[in-house]
Amino acid sequence: MDPDAKVLSDLETQLDNIFMVLSSTGLHDSDISESQHGLNDKHMASLLDACRQMDSWFIKKRLALSTYCQEYALKEEIDALNAECIRKEKLAQELKGRIEDYSKSIQVIIDQVHSSCFG
């Protein structure tokens, strides 16, 4: 089996196991025996191990992409920078509009003061 597929298969198996144990009858009672606790602990440990393997798999794939396919990392970074530029341009336009509104309001006030004082 492909190592990549094995990681996913192991995780699915451990999830199935833990759901089976949790949904089995008698485990919801308050008088759970020590053997059932041990069984749950064993399945939880296996599930955590499978989750760690999956996390490690993602990290390895991300490292491989950034190492061997640097254009993907660069494209991702360029896309993020472009999105940031677009966001800042929109913000600058909003600020420019506010400044124009404030300037018009100030000019109206100046005209009113000027006409009342000199008019």
UniProtKB/TrEMBL annotation:
Give the protein's recorded name: Mediator of RNA polymerase II transcription subunit 28
**What is the similarity comment for this entry?**
Belongs to the Mediator complex subunit 28 family.
PANTHER family referenced in this protein's UniProt entry, alphabetically? MEDIATOR COMPLEX SUBUNIT 28 (PTHR13512), MEDIATOR OF RNA POLYMERASE II TRANSCRIPTION SUBUNIT 28 (PTHR13512:SF2)
- Give the matching Pfam families: Med28 (PF11594)
Keywords assigned = Activator, Coiled coil, Nucleus, Transcription, Transcription regulation
Species assigned in the record: Schistosoma rodhaini
Cited InterPro entries: Mediator_Med28
Q: Where in the cell is it found?
A: Nucleus
Principal subcellular localization: nucleus
Gene Ontology terms, cellular component aspect?
Answer: mediator complex
Tell me the superkingdom of the source. Answer: Eukaryota
Q: Does the keyword Transcription apply?
A: yes
